[in-house]
Amino acid sequence: MRDILAEIVAKKRLIVDEAKKNMPLDRLRAELEVGRFQMSRAVVKGSWSLIAECKLQSPAKGRLNATHSVVELAKIYEANGAAMLSVHTDPHFLGSNESFIDVRRAVGLPLLRKDFVIDEYQIYEARWLGADAVLLIVRILTAEQLKKFLYVTWSLGMDALVEVHDEADLSTALETNAAFIGINNRNLKTFVTSIDQTLELLPSIPTEDRSRVLISESGVSTVEDIKRLRAAGLDGILVGEGLVRATDIAAQTRAFSV
Description:
Elements: H1 4-22, H2 25-31, H3 38-42, E1 49-54, E2 57-58, E3 62-63, H4 70-79, E4 84-88, H5 97-106, E5 111-114, H6 121-129, E6 133-137, H7 143-155, E7 159-164, H8 167-174, E8 180-184, H9 196-201, E9 213-217, H10 223-232, E10 236-239, H11 241-244, H12 249-257
Parallel strand pairs: 1-4, 1-10, 4-5, 5-6, 6-7, 7-8, 8-9, 9-10
Antiparallel strand pairs: 2-3
């Protein structure tokens, strides 16, 4: 069976190596400005938050939206209630650093750089691009890397959404001080999604860890999905396909934001 995640990570190593040649870490660090933890201001425990994703393509489903640019999506999301935006910079999703910069210039909402972080260089690069947060996927990091990358992220004034997929990932995440836990509803090998992934994993989170902000990622496509997730105690959702494939993206954004 095709392992899409493994393919992406293998390609990512080549992309990062090339980026280091073009923009050495010392230069990145010298040019960036430390952030102000904008995700922590926008996505708050107990207050429902939509992190709307500017997503044009999926490795599993191909082109998802051919009528809007990422900047146009970002502006629609901002105007219709999203708390924060997620912007892909991975080419498998038609993302790029250039499109991230374009979105940063176009909107005032906090931005999550959506990528597959395997090297701390990418965290510095994210802040240099203007990101307010990064995604750290437990499945592709060691426990030691996860902790180190979290502290690098915080040292740059950014937040991190720590993404888990199963109980093993969750256990690793909960051993850190991560404030934001994202439960990925996507099978990371086949990229098939179901919100049941979140609902089945929630009972594994100890009561003392429920103070963390819990986000359900991917697979949310209806208001009924949102009702189920809110009733279960989630604090928000990260949605891409469920927005970009909607007939009326603005209306769908409003519906998912409340």
